[in-house]
Write a structure and sequence with these properties.
The protein starts with a helix and ends with a strand. The chain is of the alpha/beta class. Helix 11 links the parallel strand 8 and strand 9. The protein folds into three domains: 246 residues, Glucose-6-phosphate isomerase like protein, domain 1 (Rossmann fold, 3-Layer(aba) Sandwich), CATH 3.40.50.10490; 187 residues, Rossmann fold; 78 residues, Arc Repressor Mutant, subunit A (Orthogonal Bundle), CATH 1.10.10.10. It has 17 helices and 14 strands. Strands 1-2-11-10-8-9 form a six-stranded mixed β-sheet, sandwiched between helices. Strands 4-3-5-6-7 form a five-stranded parallel β-sheet, sandwiched between helices. The protein binds 6-O-phosphono-alpha-D-glucopyranose (G6P).
């Protein structure tokens, strides 16, 4: 296609939302009219499925749940008055609570005001809050946010060390929809112990965001925590950023949560239109389908040319891969669906892996995100008539062009600025695109059965660890690995046992190794 034809294609397919100042360009994905004609009826069905979902149908059949994240930003759409008022009241409670913290009506014991937030959560209970904090957090917010999103002891120590003495003015948000996620529970217990070591009463600093009646909810009630915010069962973890999960930390940081919700609501309205060409989420899902042949054959590389959007790809990784990565479709056929997502930011990544994108294996398509406004205020001229922002813009255009010349496809999103409204709209855009894509490829986007396998396996390793320690403590001398495995009654698990012992020994806990751990056959093991 020559330059004139490409320019025509660009204009033919350009989506523009005037209210949001949002552009979507799918012209560099090479679908043709025949493909669009073939997909149109499939999208018509997908629009119907999403419409039913928005009206409260059980869209997650396995878990027998409604899928209601769309109601969060337009409570009037909730299927009944109870749900509507729950959304409205939660928002009101978040705002009231935030105001009490900001005005120092609620204070930490013996201190003037809260200075920091420590948010403990993982997956959907961390990625959205982390993304929004990075995208919208001010340099000097009313409360500075810190995260623990893992059960890594060294990571926890680093975060606690960074807080140092400010722990006594830190509000702890423990976020877990299920209220039983081990990493989050461990983080909470570690942090609680840190408060106790300083003689501070943890419950005066702790807030739970969780499902009603969950283990976490029970702990928060029993210990009389400072506050609890509900997380509804019809909001999935990876679509929970605009529920109390994301809104509470954002509001506490002084971010305009009403504006985030308004942006999402506007994008919801735009992506509800049941017409492929005038619906940006449908256009995006169409482009994904074409690029990956409806089977995820190409990875999605997310390249925002704006530092504050650095964590968008990580956020989208869960949203897209946990939603679309499924073994079976809704009819039970093995389909092994999914789209792999990665990326950081441009132009930084041009100096890392764009070499491979341009010349190496052609197994991806790129989504470039362009932000029109460079910065607040005016810019220094780096060269005569040229600013740093001109460079950034030039790099984006150049990369898009260079990739396309080499038959690498791309989508380009253009936004005016990174504001709460726009961030809300981006979240809503991708949520809808995922819903539509899943409907088109006939999978359940709202469950995550595969995650359970890893959790169960981890639990069984911890169980095995207890058995190993027990056997060794009852044995006087040393044993070979094979003997330990025999005594535990799990000769099949000798490799797991070896790794458990190596880990405990490295931490100087309970067991010790004699011999060379690099040559497991020669090792002898004993209780410490
Ligand atoms: O919010 P929680 O219940 O603690 O869940 C945190 C995460 O746990 C699991 O790994 C799920 O697969 C995720 O979808 C979820 O976001």
């Amino acid at each position: 296609m020559d330059a004139t034809a490409l320019w025509q294609r660009y204009q033919d397919w350009l989506y523009y939302n005037e209210e949001l100042g949002f552009y979507l360009d799918v012209s560099r994905v090479t679908f043709d009219d025949a493909f669009v004609a073939e997909m149109t009826p499939r999208f018509a069905k997908a629009f119907e499925a999403i419409d039913a979902l928005e009206k409260g149908a059980i869209a997650n059949p396995d878990e027998n749940r409604m899928v209601g994240h769309y109601w969060l930003r337009d409570p009037d759409l909730a299927p009944n008055e109870d749900l509507r008022s729950e959304i409205v009241n939660t928002l009101r409670d978040i705002e009231n609570f935030t105001q009490q913290i900001h005005t120092a009506t609620i204070t930490p014991p013996g201190e003037e005001r809260f200075t920091d937030i420590l948010s403990i959560g993982i997956g959907g209970s961390a990625l959205g809050p982390e993304f929004v904090a990075e995208a919208l957090g001010a340099v000097n917010p009313p409360l500075q946010i810190n995260f623990i999103d893992n059960t890594d002891p060294a990571g926890i120590d680093k975060t606690l060390a960074r807080l140092g003495d400010r722990l006594k003015t830190t509000l702890v948000l423990v976020i877990s929809k299920s209220g039983g996620t081990p990493e989050t529970r461990n983080g909470m217990l570690e942090v609680k112990a840190a408060y106790e070591r300083r003689g501070l009463d943890f419950s005066k600093y702790a807030i739970a965001t969780t499902g009603r009646g969950s283990k976490l909810d029970k702990v928060a009630q029993a210990d009389n925590w400072l506050a609890t915010f509900p997380m509804q069962d019809w909001v999935g973890g990876r679509t929970s950023e605009l529920s109390s999960v994301g809104l509470l930390p954002a509001a506490l940081q002084g971010i305009d949560i009403r504006a985030i919700l308004a942006g999402a609501k506007q994008m919801d309205a735009a992506t509800r239109i049941p017409d492929l060409k005038s619906n940006p989420a449908a256009l995006m899902a169409l482009a994904w389908y074409h690029a990956g042949n409806g089977k995820g054959e190409k990875d999605m590389v997310i390249l925002p040319y704006k530092d504050s959007l650095l964590l968008f790809s990580r956020y989208l990784q869960q949203l897209i891969m946990e939603s679309l990565g499924k073994e079976t479709d809704l009819d039970g056929n093995k389909v092994f669906q999914g789209i792999a997502v990665y990326g950081n930011k441009g132009s930084t990544d041009q100096h890392a892996y764009v070499q491979q994108l341009r010349e190496g294996v052609n197994n991806f398509f790129v989504t470039l995100i362009e932000v029109l406004t460079d910065r607040e205020g005016s810019s220094t001229e780096i060269d005569p008539g040229v600013t740093a922002g001109d460079y950034l813009s030039g790099f984006l255009q150049g990369t898009r062009k260079a990739l396309f010349e080499n038959k690498r496809q791309s989508i380009t999103i253009t936004i005016p600025e990174v504001t709460p409204v726009i961030v809300g709209s981006l979240i809503a855009l991708y949520e809808r695109a995922v819903s539509l894509y899943a409907a088109v490829v006939n999978i359940n986007a709202y469950h995550q059965p595969g995650v359970e396998a890893g959790k169960k396996a981890a639990a069984s390793i911890l169980n095995l660890q207890n058995m190993v320690v027990d056997v060794l403590s009852k044995t006087g001398g040393s044993l070979t690995l094979a003997e330990v495995a025999d005594k535990v009654g799990r000769p099949d698990a000798i490799e797991d046992i070896y790794k458990i012992i190596r880990h405990l020994d490295a931490n100087g806990r309970m067991v010790a190794i004699d011999g060379n751990a690099g040559n497991p056959g020669t090792m002898r093991v004993m209780a410490r």
